[in-house]
Input
Amino acid sequence: MADYTTSELMVSRAAKELRNGDVVFVGIGVPSLAVNLAYRMHAPDLCMIYESGAVGCVPTRLPISIGDPCLVTGSLAVVPMLDVFNLYLQGGKIDVGFLGGAQVDRFGNINSTVIGDYRKPKVRLPGSGGACEIAALAKKVVITIANSKRTLPEKVDFVTSPGYLRGGRERESLGLKGGPELVITDMGVYHFDPETREMVLESLHPGVTLETIRENTGWPVKSAPSLKETPPPTAEEIRIVRDELDPQGIFLRKGAQG
Amino acid sequence: MTMKDAVGRFVRDGDLVVMEGFTHLIPFAAGHEIIRQERRDLTLARLTPDLIYDQLIAAGCVKKMIFSWAGNPGVGPLHAFRRAVEKGTPRPLEIEEYTHFGMVLRFMAGASNLPFLPTRNYPGTDLTSVNPLFKKVRSPYSDEELWCVPPIHPDVTIVHAQRADEDGNTQVWGLYGVQKEAAFASRKVIVTVEEVVPASVIRSDPNRTIIPGIIVSAVVPEPFGAHPSFVQGAYDRDNDFYVAWDAISREEAGLRKYLDEWVHGVPDRTAYTKKMAARREALQADRQMCEPVNYGF
Output
């Protein structure tokens, strides 16, 4: 078996969520690597959009931030941020958005605002940025996050970006379409039950047990009847990630989790 | 006009000030001059406060911040911002929080002289319960209820750009961010540029003009004025500095030392640039020219 890191496994799994021709709202870290991997492997017609306004990007170096100048050079279009949010996102043109955060709860709500009370925060986090609108307005959302009781609590301290709220039909009843489709952690992959909208474990990464997952998740997590093993990255995927996408190991060799 | 004169004349204590630029073209030189002139009780608005507002907060210039993402992009938290919010030092910081889309719509509402703008965003988020300025409106054409944001009307907006003519007709290429909307929403506009060019250069390529001279109060030639952020076609982002800022700003003393050396310790951006000659050389952009287009008729 090829040697690979957990982050590389997450990148490979996230890349499989993308289809050729998808219009993807890209973030930095694991999402950026996943989208660029999919583009090189099976989705050459994928269109990358960054919230900074660069559309159809072909970055020749690993973007350090979502506003890296390498996203502009050679892109198909550069548009004002008003257009990014009004025309592309609210206009329904984004197929997939990637999100992370400090906390994700059992219904896929994301907190990137504050730990503790908003007025008297224990930890003040950066805030929404474009995350809330991506969660609300993209056709589907893929979430990457570490798997621990702290990062996957039963209920987030603050809903920055809406998932399925309190579950069931609440999201739809408020007029929101889409919603989180998949949560990829460093231990496993979860989808959402179509009725209850609760996170359900669908695969374990190689070497991880159900007990480990339960010890590291903030609620008694359910697992799919056909619980599988997450497919490890192929030798070709590892080669592309290491040699072409992140040759300096900026995101992957230092244990970054997106 | 010099930066010293422009800030001296157009930025007052207690003003609502916007210095925009989304990772690109952040007007750091203007921010440093505001710190040198010791402006106080400012309300600062910006999508991403970035290092520039972290420095203004640490220098004690800021009473309130209106924002949507307060981090060091690609690196980590903004330590001065966090100290002000979590511990109230050097002074408590009032915050008013949106999302990027919400901030962009606030600028657009201000620029368009409208009382609000609606969006399909925000159902289910807790942001609307901690910020009472989010309000709901019912569509007069359907049963839909939509969340709205109010306009913002800055006293002064400062933007940095590749070039402008003497009258302030300003051209930008690369990431546009929200500079056009912020400028149009503002009572006064200061444009700082890498290069002041003859009007004939602007007129040779009018599609690239994002801010017209008719709304500009001052034009300041300020090469390297966006460092450590970048200017497409001029210099790259100084990512080493963004990474270094994490350690510099982690303790108040370290941050104070930085301000003493690089802000108070230099009279202007020219001196700052001279002190940083080797960095500037290393950050120089490659040449990648576009195909000319024909504006003839």
